[in-house]
Amino acid sequence: MPPNAERGIPSLRRAIARWQTWWVRLFILMVVVMSAAPVPRPWAAACMLIPLLLFCVRPPAQRRDPVTVHVPVRGRWISFNSPGSRVPSHRVRAHGQMYAVDLIQDTQDTAEGAMEEATGQAPSLGWSLRGSTPEEYPSYGAPVFAMASGTVVHVTDHLRDHRARDSWPTLIWMMTLEGFLRVLGGVRSILGNRVIIRHDDGRYAAYVHLRRDSATVRPGDRVDTGQQLGQVGNTGNTSEPHLHVQLMDRPRPESAAGLPMRWSGVDIDTERLSQRWATGYAKPSAVPDFPANGQIFQAIAPQDQRVH
């Protein structure tokens, strides 16, 4: 049987998970209908509970050894929500995020060792009703590169970049009503602009929250390791511009299970740690030899790695 083939309960779970956005929409519809219609209470409860339970179904987890791919950025970066600290890295398995990682650029001038880390402390949250523009963040517009050779299977890059959620009102908005609306909107609203590539080994890589109109590839294109795919943006469910990247066993995030990875081309800084993103010791579930939360690393291009 092919590696990705499934039968029975695992296949059923994946089929149900594929429609998770519609289960939420059906739940909302049932709440509205049952509130307005004279339906017996047991029937009303069942009609609302069933879609809610179906929404909670996730694809079966894939237990595979981490595969080595090349780091998708260049320069000095900080990892957070990392599988190097815990799994699930984002505390959810939905949308293939079991082993996903988020990255922001480190802004310290490394030429001055005594200089305090610019990204070390969490920024103070004010009370502005409008967040900062994405251009105010150093990660915005940074190039994103393919982690392995493969074929592009999906590109979305027309969604606009929104302002950061970096004040108390905007952060509360993001965590409450906006978050609920994005769940109703589905993958498009949660992941934003993205590029998905099928690697030659059959795994899929998703590069998420990309900048509007920055994609340099289109579905069907052949890409090589280290080829630029787009730029870091602030689209989808984000509080500030950053890159979210993950490996999956299917091309559709709704029905995909996340897969573990390791990176080549990474030199972790053992002298510095971003206190803003650090979360202490790694959990037993963490993927070994992967940058942990708050770790700062230097990412080099594949050709530079060969030279060294």
TrEMBL record:
Region (Disordered): 218-241
TM region(s), chain numbering: 21-37
Gene3D superfamilies: Glucose Permease (Domain IIA) (2.70.70.10)
InterPro entries: Cell_wall_metabolism_enzyme, Dup_hybrid_motif, M23ase_b-sheet_dom
GO molecular function: metalloendopeptidase activity
Signal peptide: none
Entry keyword set: Membrane, Transmembrane, Transmembrane helix
Alphabetized Pfam families for the sequence: Peptidase_M23
Biased composition (Polar residues): 225-240
Domain M23ase beta-sheet core: 189-249
Protein name as annotated: Peptidase M23-like protein
Native source species: Citricoccus muralis
